Amino acid sequence: MEFLDIANRYIPGYGLLNRRKRKTFERSPAGLQFIRAVKDTLTSIEEIRASLAWWQVLFSSPETIYAQAKQNFVAQKTRLLSDIEQTDAYKKVVARIIWEILRAEYPDFKLLTTEQKRLLTQAEFSRGLQTSIPPLLEDEQDVTNPAVLEQIRDEKRKIIAAWKALFLANPEMAPLRETIAQRKEEIRQQEIVQKIVVLDERANALAQAFPLLNNPLPPHEESAIAVLRARYRLEMQKKEPNTAKVEEMLVTEVVFYYLQQATAKNLPNEMILHNFNQRQANRIAKEIMQAFNDKEALLLDHWLQVYKQELGNHIIEKLLLINGKEWKIPSDTQGQVLMHSLSYLWNNRVVNGGTEFVNKLADAHAFIQATSFATQNESSFLAILDLYNYSRFANQINENKAIIASLLAPFRPIYEEYRDIGLYEKDPFFKFARMVMPMIVAVTAIVLTALLLNPLGLSDLVFTFILIPTVLVALRAAAEYIVVKNDLYQKARQLYYGGTFEIPEFQINPRMISAFGNHEKATMVRNFYIDEFKRCEEIEASYQSKAALSEQDLISRMENVNRRRTLWLEWYDIHSNLALGYDKTPKIVLARLHEVGNTEFQSLKKVLKDSEETQLQSSVNRLVSEVTTTLSTTPQETPVDSADNHGITPQETPVGSADGHGGGPQEIPVVNADSHSDALAELPAVRTPINHSPRLFRPLHCLVHQKRVEEVDCILSALSTPIVGC
Predict the structure, then answer these.
(1) Percent above pLDDT 70 for the chain
(2) SS (H, E, C) 198-267
(3) pLDDT reported for residue 647
(4) End of a domain among 505, 522, 553?
(5) What is residue 638's predicted lDDT score, i.e. its pLDDT?
(6) Is 473 part of a structural domain of the chain?
(7) Which end of the chain, N or C, is less packed with Cβ atoms under 10 Å?
């Protein structure tokens, strides 16, 4: 064995010292004693090897002989260390060995001053390194098995980690830790300065490849490239900077700004494409940065053609989405037959068909009975013949009845007034007054007629004949009084309550609250039906304003009239029909909501397919053409900052600014350091584009239908959980 091998056995890590350090130690008294011990050990080993004969193996095994020699070595090492461990020379050697270990295994050791290094090597918690690390270093040099080598290195890393924990926890080492932190920060800042220079040059190259970066980027007054440099400096202050992400986000903001500008100019305001444009801007920005990094040309035309295709598909899909989801046509929502629902009976074909036949027979029978031509046969067979005759002459009888009803129509208000008095008027005073007033009006008309004819001196016979039309005129005057009185009463009532649909008949009542669960849901139902009533009235007013109606107009007008009647009956069922349980009314509302939603959704698809899809595509083409021209145009003024400024950006006059203010440099606005994460940051919406001149865009009728379906969907969602009886 060599001298250093035995020396490392006595003082672990002795071989890590350089020759000069070893010679210095070996000249000291402790070193001389150390050399004698090493040489004695070498001599003993040589003597053992030389004296080991074959016949000695018969009486003692080599292992026993070497074990005895090792025991002698341990005893001699103990005596040596007890003699020299208190000497300054030995302590210096041990400290130097720890020094070399830390220099090799702890990179931050080199950041300390010489005095601080000395204090760290002489610390109590560092002494264990001198006995634990050197054996592992020797094994690491001798071992060739990768698995075993990795185990040795893991063991070494664990020892260093344990030592580092003691170093960080020791309060006496705080100045050393501060020095390391300060030196690291100084080195990092020096590296940042060097990297900033490189990044500024990269920014200049990027601005040449994508000239729009030289334009201002609202809301900043500086150019986009100046903002990029400011963000470079902010990003480099992070522990793990990601300048590629900063560049991508900046280019994304620039592309997004111009996409939003073109969208605001060429599409209606209702077409909100903020999230879509943000995703597309990020996609285009990635393409730009990839081409820039690969030193290839920017294929903006191709990338924007992809944008055009996806934009057209996105708009169509967005218009067909109701509150962000597909509209599903439901099945029959009324469920079981609502026998006490007037609106259901009104719309039921079977009921209407049977009712029509029975009504014809009843009308025929009533007419014949009224005219005293009815037969009085008691035979059931003859009664069947009567029914047969009624059915034969039903149409003719209906015609005669219609003629009579038409002739009596001017006096119908009188009938309705007295019917209302008899069925609904409860107050005796008002009942008497309402009964008498039409009579007084009729009598007054007759008296006035008599007074006017009295000067003529007519005979009684002539006056009697004149009295017959006078009575009819008096009855018509009474009917007109009733109409005017009801109209004034209705207007006064509406004026008192604040509107047509503010009267008590249209207010929320306990029945509706019980049916829909709470006042808010009942209010939603009320507002829905009021809107439907208003739509019917608007449609009717549009037909009344026309000078002539086509066949389709007549059919549509009749459908609107029937729809309005059905809505009134549904509202009566919901609000006031005591013959129908309140728990059944939600079925009526759900059926109406689904019917309106389906109708509006089909209208949406039809309008979109027939006319407005072409208009949208034309707008998209114009939009992409403008964006392509904008992104591909080189600005006339390209103030590119020099990389030698090291972040000091001269003042720039924004494009389109009315005046250029003199003075010192402006502050470069920077964004929050947390805004450039791995995920795409939320970009602000572009509300007022630069040089914005909105074009005349014909309103999209499909948006009206979509909005209506979304309103219905919101009501359905609110009523779906929970509704009584559904």
Answers:
(1) 77
(2) HHHHHHHHHHHHCHHHHCECCCCCCEHHHHHHHHHHHHCCCCCCCHHHHHHHHHHHHHHHHHHHHHHHHC
(3) 37
(4) 505
(5) 39
(6) yes
(7) N
